[in-house]
Amino acid sequence: MTDARSAPLGIDLSPDQRWALDEFLASPRFDERVMDLATLEGFLTALVIGPNIVRPSQWIPWIWDRIDGQVAPPFEDLDEANAMLGLVMRLHNGLINRFRIDPEAFRPVYLDGARWGASEWCEGFLTGTRLDSKAWSLLKIHGFWLERRQFVGDPCGRSWRRFAPSSTMPRCRRRARWQRFSQSWRSR
Prior knowledge:
The chain is mostly helical. It is globular.
């Protein structure tokens, strides 16, 4: 098993550590309620870029039970619990560092291969927004404010002169929209 305690918490997971965490989450001892790696990354991304800080004690139970946040993880022993929770915290803290240092360089896990899907990532992101739904709903109310802060240009290389609602934006711009959103909230 990969020992997450040997590296600083703010360092991104290595590919081997991602696989170890993914294999653990896909273990037959879990039912369909546990998050997979794509769902977990989307979930943590929402928490990291969200308007408020959500304590780990509030969000960790949702990893094992993405529906109700009530099921406890069936760790075999304390070493396994420390190793897996260490990987989860490194993933979380790595996302924090990524969005603080270089949000443009963020690459969602679903772009790394067919094993992880974009729909699962989005499901995780939406679950993360529900943990602080009141603060996220205020952002919807102040949508005009958010629209005016959107960037001119997108990761696809196109230039945008008008600020269209998100439903009419190209997919690549919608994907990057939350990156700019994160920067605007963190700079306040």
